Amino acid sequence: MSPERFHRLVAKASLAPSVHNVQPAKWRLEGDRVTLFEDVRMRLPAGDPEGHDAAISLGAAFEGFCLAASEEDTRVVSIGENGAGDQGHLRPVRELELQKGSTADPLAKAVASRQSWRGAFTAPTEEDRQAARTLAAEDCHPVTDPERVREIAGLCDTASFGYMKDKAFRTELLSWMRLSKRHARWSVDGLNAEAMGLGRVERIGAGIVMGRAFGFFNAVGLAAPLLAEAGKTAGAAAILIFSRPADEDPFESGRAFYRAWLHIEAQGFAAQVLAALADDPAAAAQVHTMAALPANHRVVSAFRIGRPTAQKPYPRARRSVEELIV
Fold first, then answer.
1. I need a surface site. Which of 7, 51, 88, 107 has the fewest CB within 10 A?
2. What percent of the chain is helix, strand and coil (3-state, nearest 5)?
3. What does the alpha-carbon distance between residue 190 and residue 42 come to, in Å, rounded to a whole number?
4. Distance, CA of 90 to CA of 108 (rounded, Å)
5. What is the Cα–Cα distance from 125 to 131, expressed in whole angstroms?
6. Is 27 in contact with 13 (CB distance < 8 Å)?
7. CA–CA separation, 219 vs 183, rounded Å?
């Protein structure tokens, strides 16, 4: 494979979602073999101490690489975990072999337009809810009843705020937030204010409420309502609960997670991940029951989905291909 072609595949793979947009995947080409590495410097010790979300992110990047390859008549064959040891900050994750001959995956068409939508949704119609129900699959469980959607919205805010009360979590999250365009990595990685749907006043407020003033705002009962998103979530056409077998490798769950999001995009919906519904054990247990998930499944993630009120206007923050190839 030529370096130019490899660069194209890596660029498309980089469009996959990752926790806090940390982009942990790095790539190396040697002949017709590719090694996927994790850049362990991108780990989140407070928010992801066991590396579960990192593995999900790496699986999504791998799936993105496969989707891109399928459009170039190339089949990607995983030949297992790389046997080499860690190379500094790079941890080998998978070794891949590239073979000629493949049919373009239909979901590859949705990659370019998929991105998180933290803005408002148009008022959902019954047709929207019915379209959301067509996304139902063994691992995708749409909740479309408006009352249940509101209930889950409140549950998500409660779970999210539980994490926000942890100073280490807030500090880590703020380190990945880009609240000003003057930030050196505004367009490179992390969560910039445009991607989070924050206006000028909200940008300033987020830094204050989540920063040193959190204790004061929490003491007077304002922190939770200022950080709440139940209003946006309750306006969704559906909450899509994404579950996978409890014993599945999170890397494989990440591949399926990305495909589920692309199915949402292909149906004309915008989506935002509701991570707290999976991360918080109590919330995950309640959602598991509410969505009547299979007994042997665990909640991996959830999305609020709906028709966006406007075109998704912001460019995605991504590292250069040169930074992703090692």
1. 88
2. 45, 20, 35
3. 10
4. 28
5. 10
6. yes
7. 31
Helices assigned H by DSSP within the chain = 3-13, 52-70, 126-133, 146-164, 167-176, 200-210, 214-219, 223-227, 230-234, 250-266, 276-279, 281-290, 321-324
CA torsion through residues 263, 198, 60, 27, sign: positive
DSSP one-letter code for 87: B
**pLDDT by residue (tens digit) across 81-108?**
755 677 899 999 999 999 998 899 999 9
Sheet hosting strand 140-143, strand order edge to edge: 140-143, 238-245, 297-306, 270-273
Nearest to 89 by CA among 19, 47, 26, 176: 26
In the chain, the amino acid numbered 291 is: A
CA angle, 89 then 95 then 97, to 5°: 145
Return the bridge partners of 141, or none: 241
Q: Which amino acid is at 232?
A: K
Residues 227 and 157: their CA atoms lie apart, in Å, by 8
- Helix or strand or coil: residue 315? coil
Which whole number is the average pLDDT over 291-312? 93
The answer to whether 255 and 60 have CB atoms below 8 angstroms apart is yes
Rounded distance, CA 283 to CA 106, Å?
Answer: 34
pTM: 0.95
